[in-house]
Amino acid sequence: MGASSGGRGSHDSVVVSLPARPRKQPKQARSVALVEALKTAGREVLEREGREALSIYRLSDYSGVAISSIYEYFPTIESLIGAIFEDYRADVRLQTIANIHALPASATLYDGIEMVLRTGLGALHRWLQIDSQLSIKSAYHGELVRLEIVKPERFWISRVIPALVERFSDQVVVRDREKAGFLAYQAVTALPRALLIEKPHYLLEDDTVRLLARMLHALLTTADPEQPSR
Question: Of 145, 146, 122, 144, whose CA–CA distance to 196 is shortest?
Answer without folding.
Answer: 122
